[in-house]
Amino acid sequence: MRRFLKLLTVGFTLALISCGGDDDICVSGEATSRVKVKFKTEINDKLLTVDTLYVSVDYGNGKIKDLTKRSMVDSLLIPLRVDNSTATKLYFKTRIKGDTSIVNINYKTQSAYVSPACGYKLSYKDVTYDLVKPTPVKKVQSNQTEIVDENKTHFYLLF
After folding, report:
1. Taking a C-beta distance cutoff of 8 angstroms, is the pair 133, 101 a contact?
2. Which residues have CB under 8 Å from 153's CB, separation 6+?
3. Organism's domain of life (predicted)?
4. Helical segments of 1-153, H only
5. In Å, what is the CA distance from 72 to each residue of 31, 44, 106, 126, 139?
6. Cα–Cα distance for residue pair 127/158, rounded to 1 Å
7. How far is residue 74's CA from residue 51's CA, in Å, rounded to a whole number?
8. Which of 15, 22, 50, 142 is the most buried (most CB within 10 A)?
9. 3-state secondary structure string, 34-47?
């Protein structure tokens, strides 16, 4: 019985020592980057804080996902599709019963293995932004053609 307990203790200790390494934790910044959007005025091209913003996303499953409703927002981080699609459709409106602007983000994806905890990270290359329906958003201004770092602003919505 003592031999069994000793063997069990050694096995448990080895399991504790071997688990919990750095590769078991997905540190922020290692996962797939989100697209960062900021806002400007169309008249003078100055940064803008939007008083109320509703954002929805079409992730391709037949439903449009309400992502956020925010007040006094100056920027947003929005996750894009991570399937084999080459585009994500975003919906923006400033009033709950108001018009909705539609922005298509088109891209090519490239995956890279990060770690056992994070799995694969998706990078978005050759990114373009198309304003499909221009109310309340008046224009889309591209700032980056790849999405690999969510600290950078990728595009601006002009109101």
Report:
1. yes
2. 36, 37, 38, 75, 143, 144
3. Bacteria
4. 2-18
5. 28, 20, 28, 31, 20
6. 18
7. 9
8. 50
9. CEEEEEECCCCCCE
* pLDDT the model gives residue 49: 98
- Residues 72-120 pLDDT 10s: 999 999 999 999 899 999 999 999 999 999 999 999 999 989 888 888 8
Could you report the per-residue pLDDT of 119-151, keeping only the tens digit for each? Answer: 888 999 999 999 999 999 999 999 999 999 999
Q: Which two tokens stand for residue 84?
A: 């084999």
For the chain, which residues make up each domain, given as ranges?
Answer: 2-158
- Residues 80/55, Cβ–Cβ less than 8 Å: no
What the block records as the tokens of 82 is 């991570």
Q: Which residue has the tokens 């990270």?
A: 121
Query: Residue 154: what residue type?
Result: H
pTM score of the predicted model? 0.81
CA-based nearest residue to 99, from 46, 49, 138:
138
Instruction: For residue 119, give both structure tokens.
Output: 């799995």
